[in-house]
Amino acid sequence: MTFETRSITKVLSANDTGETGGHQAGILVPRERRLLSFFPSLNEKDYNPRAHLKFVDASGLEWEFAFIYYNNKFFGGTRNEYRLTRMTRFIREAGLAADDEVILSRSEADEYSIDFKRKSEARPDERGVLKLGSGWKIVDMEGRR
DNA sequence: AGCCATGCACCG
DNA sequence: CGGTGCATGGCT
């Protein structure tokens, strides 16, 4: 069996929101299996495999993001990382900025939803930890290995 | 490992 | 022709 991560969050970097002037249109997803288990599995043998995912926001609007595994390292290049791209429109519409947090969830029926929490609304948890690691956090997980 | 950056293709 | 995303390299 595999892990079934149901909800994760990420504190946005300046580059994620476009504040650095880049047009990357994608945030990096660490190559960590519990994080990756939130997303559909991609065939890692393919070159830059991807899946397009529909996310519903709090107001019921649908957004399509792209979950991509840039793996050209195994095809003569240097990349070996996952990204969730095509979020710029959502980020702009929501008015998100660096240090704001996006919350991604997946239902029992594998329907994805997205929400966010502005920095000003972010609260430390019971341990007083506000931001951990690279900004990603697993909120809830089901199943076992 | 994670964030920053960009040439080019595509599309309105 | 300006904005967006792809694919990739660079920097710390």
Automatic annotation (TrEMBL):
Domain Restriction endonuclease type II EcoRII N-terminal, residue spans: 8-87
InterPro entries given in the database record: DNA-bd_pseudobarrel_sf (IPR015300), Rest_endonuc_II_EcoRII_N (IPR023372)
Alphabetic keyword roster: Hydrolase
Molecular-function GO term, any one: type II site-specific deoxyribonuclease activity
SUPFAM superfamilies linked: DNA-binding pseudobarrel domain
Gene3D superfamilies: DNA-binding pseudobarrel domain (2.40.330.10)
One Pfam match: EcoRII-N
Top-level class of the enzyme under EC nomenclature: hydrolase
EC number: 3.1.21.4
Name of the protein this chain belongs to: Type-2 restriction enzyme EcoRII
UniProt source species: Jannaschia seosinensis
Record lineage: Bacteria, Pseudomonadati, Pseudomonadota, Alphaproteobacteria, Rhodobacterales
Gene name in the database record: ecoRIIR
